[in-house]
Design brief:
This protein has 3 helices and 2 strands, in the order H-E-H-E-H. The protein has 128 residues and is mainly alpha-helical. It is found in: Bacterial flagellum basal body.
Length: 128
C-alpha cells in the first residue's frame, strides 16, 4: 500500500540517499591518512530528483510519460577544489564531519516526512 503513495517513495529515496552519502563520507574519513586518496561525494538529492521551475515531469508508474520513478542510484564522484596534503590526500576532516551532520539531518528529515505522512494517513482512515 505504501509503495503507491509518492510521498512515501520520496521519503524512502531521501533516506536511501542520506545513507549512501553517509557511507561515502565515512569512507573518506577512514582514508584521511591514505596517501593519494581523493575525497569523494554524492550529488545532492535535489539534483537527482529535480526541483524548481524547470523541473521535468515525473512518471508515477511504468509506461506513464514513457518513464518510471525508479530507485535512487548514488552518483559517487571525486570532489575537486580542495587543497591536498603533501602526500596527495584531499580529505579535510572538518569538512567531512560537517557533511556527515548534513547527511544525518537529511535522514532525520526523511523520517519526519514519513512519520508525518503516516499520521495523516492514519487520521484519514479513522485510526489513531
Amino acid at each position: 500500500m505504501f509503495d503507491t503513495l509518492q510521498i512515501f517513495r520520496m521519503a524512502h529515496a531521501m533516506a536511501q540517499h542520506a545513507g549512501a552519502r553517509q557511507a561515502v563520507l565515512a569512507r573518506n574519513i577512514a582514508n584521511a591518512d591514505t596517501p593519494g586518496y581523493a575525497a569523494r561525494d554524492i550529488a545532492p538529492f535535489t539534483d537527482s530528483v529535480g526541483s524548481g521551475a524547470g523541473q521535468a515531469l515525473k512518471a508515477t508508474r511504468p509506461g506513464h510519460l514513457s518513464g518510471a520513478f525508479g530507485g535512487h542510484a548514488a552518483d559517487i564522484r571525486m570532489r575537486h577544489g580542495g587543497t591536498a596534503d603533501p602526500n596527495g590526500n584531499s580529505v579535510a576532516l572538518e569538512q567531512e564531519m560537517l557533511k556527515a551532520v548534513d547527511a544525518k539531518r537529511q535522514h532525520d528529515r526523511a523520517l519526519a516526512i514519513y512519520k508525518s505522512s503516516l499520521t495523516v494517513l492514519r487520521a484519514a482512515t479513522g485510526r489513531r
